[in-house]
Amino acid sequence: MPWHLRWREQLSSYLPLLVMALLVLASWWLVKNSPRPLAPAEERPVSNEPDYTMAQFALERFDAQGRLKLRIEGATLKHFPATDRIEIEDAQIRAISPDGRVTLARAKLALGNGDGSEVQLRGGAEVTATDANGQPLVMRSEFLHAFLVTEQVRSHLPVEVRLGGNALRAAGLDYDHGQRRLELLGPMRAELTPRAPVPARAAPAPRP
Question: Which UniProt keywords apply (predicted)?
Answer without folding.
Answer: Cell inner membrane, Cell membrane, Membrane, Transmembrane, Transmembrane helix
